[in-house]
Design a protein that fits this description.
- By secondary structure, this protein is of the alpha+beta class.
- It is built from four helices and eleven strands.
- Strand 9 and strand 10 form a beta hairpin.
- The longest helix has 13 residues.
Length: 153
Amino acid sequence: MSPTAFRERGYRFFVFSREERRLHVHVTSGDGEAKFWLKPAIQLANNHGYGPRQLAEIEALSREHHHELVRAWHNTWAVAVTHIPSHGVWLLAHGLELFVPYTQHPWFKDQPVKAILNAKEPSPGHYHGPEIDIDLSQDILEHPEQYPNIARR
């Protein structure tokens, strides 16, 4: 998934989900493509085809739209629900398959599919079900034995 954050002056600014965790933006036009880091500072990561004047223009646009780009970045870190069998929910996040068993997380069991499919990843490794109002971490799902305080119905 690579949603467009914005288009301006012939450039398309977009982000890739699941590429890498450091905040960055990709920029493309008919003249080339580039990648800029967004944090800790806006900085050129790589360039294919743009000259110094274009890179300066792209950097200025990145500064002008910085908040918009960071918001677009965070919106791409979505967790995908890949399967909902009778005993839990399978999630896919950053190439990892994570299982949420109903025995350990029973609040998922009786939820409508729409609510489960609406899972978000507001920050890397932190999963939130806004309609269910549930927060989980990747660490909890990968190492449940380290978190003995399991909810029971």
